[in-house]
Amino acid sequence: MEHINSKPPIYDPIAIQPMRDELIYVGFEELLTPNDVESKVSVNDGESKLIFLNSVCGCSAGSARPGIALALQNSKIPNKLYTSFAGNDRDSVDTIRENYFTQYAPSSPAIAIIKNGETVYFMGRPQIIDKLPEVIANELISEFEKIDGKAGPSITEEKYGELVHAISCGSKIPLN
Known about the structure:
Elements: H1 13-25, E1 29-30, H2 34-40, E2 48-54, H3 61-71, E3 76-77, E4 80-85, H4 90-100, E5 110-115, E6 118-124, H5 125-128, H6 133-144, E7 150-151, H7 157-161
Parallel strand pairs: 1-4, 2-4
Antiparallel strand pairs: 2-5, 3-7, 5-6
Helix pairs in contact: 2-4, 3-6
């Protein structure tokens, strides 16, 4: 059964699109509905899944997105890359939190590695804030080395060199 979103987006979808595009560019697939979460993340296929709850928070997500992109240049990365946007993909974010992040306080941004329905790694906003992208990348790479994944990088070095990071203060993002 297809789930529709019951909660309207909080932020102007056009204003946050660059933050979405940054992740799509490096290989993430968006989880826009609860059905997306159930059909892709909930599958116990033995594959590692990196989940990033994107956010307008410039001080945290503004470091997390570049940190993740850099980590995905590693020679070993998770099998699947998924993202949902907190505040806009509200039903899918709720589904992720209710199914995988129950032992953690709600956080955006948040980074997790899930395998066979279990969260094996979690980095919430308190662990992200004030960290440089390189520090976040190094921590993620350390976790990537512990999991069964696939060969990286997620995009070529040349394509990575053309990546433009979307960094802006969330307080300046218009509400929908």
